[in-house]
Amino acid sequence: MKREMIMNTTEEKNITIVLLQYSVVAKGMERKLIDLGYHVDVISNRYNSITNYNKTDLFVIYLPTDIMDDMAKRAILEEICKNIQNGGRKMLFLGEKKYHAELSREVPVIDDHVWLDRPVDNETLSEVVENTIAGTLKGGRKRILIVDDDPSYAAMVKEWIRKDYRVETVTAGMQAITFLLKNPVDLILLDYEMPVVDGPQVLQMLRQENATKDIPVVFLTGVGTKEEVERVMSLHPSGYILKTTTKENLITFLKHKLV
User: Which of 42, 148, 185, 207 has the most CB atoms lying inside 10 A of its own CB?
Assistant: First the structure.
């Protein structure tokens, strides 16, 4: 019954598997997807032909195990992703978990699509493929903006959390406003005391803009007096953390906040 349901939902859906090197496992995956009712093409060379696959519903990019050791393959991957992205198509990356964050930093488009850790069983694969095509499963690590006039502290916090999140930093309140009007983020870590425009003023301005009013803002600051904390509570920040916090406590807080 489950297979019949999948067959119905995948009728006339086209999948293109992109291989940067031959893989027996990928060939097995191809057979499984065909069994589920998908039309499957495989590209293992002539990658510039990807632009001709304009009826593909999903590109499955099967990453080789040596992707982080082979600069030429990474360059090919980047060009492949660029061509697919320009065509407005969905991608599903199959790769090793230990390379996800590092590879995403080198090929940022990966973070805009779905990633599936290998090894993966056929049932999980079929479910993820179906949901990715349907648009009910979206990829990408959460994006955090750190706003702090102390670049050394901002760099330290970025290093703490960069394995789990995409992290951007700015060193002034107005820089944050300019950045956020052009770049969506999932959460802001905001310092309190900054020159010219301080943290509470930044939060107040963000709440007045439709594009930024709903972004969760968490104060990460050395300011902890009752009067100063009360000043920002009326603006309803999503949290207030002192800079004396530990790496572990901050990561735990973010994991609960960014579910």
Answer: 148
